[in-house]
Design goal:
It is built from 1 helix and 3 strands, in the order E-H-E-E. It is α+β, with helices and mostly antiparallel strands and 72 residues long. It has a 3-stranded antiparallel sheet with strand order 1-3-2.
Amino acid sequence: MRKSPETIDLVPVGNENLSATEFIELVKTSKHLIKKSEIVPPVLGKKDFGSFDVSYNRPIYKPFFGFKPITR
């Protein structure tokens, strides 16, 4: 008996918030997709180095469980 293929829900992403590591990887691999990026400075008391708000030229599709929308 043949199993039916599993589906993965993808959502279109036009803007997203990335960590420094994720942003560097995006620039190395897909710089042509970036329309605009802004640095979000770190907040005192948190253990991170800030982040980057990235706007894409066109929507890219990502799995729903990995989606981090920009919250302002």
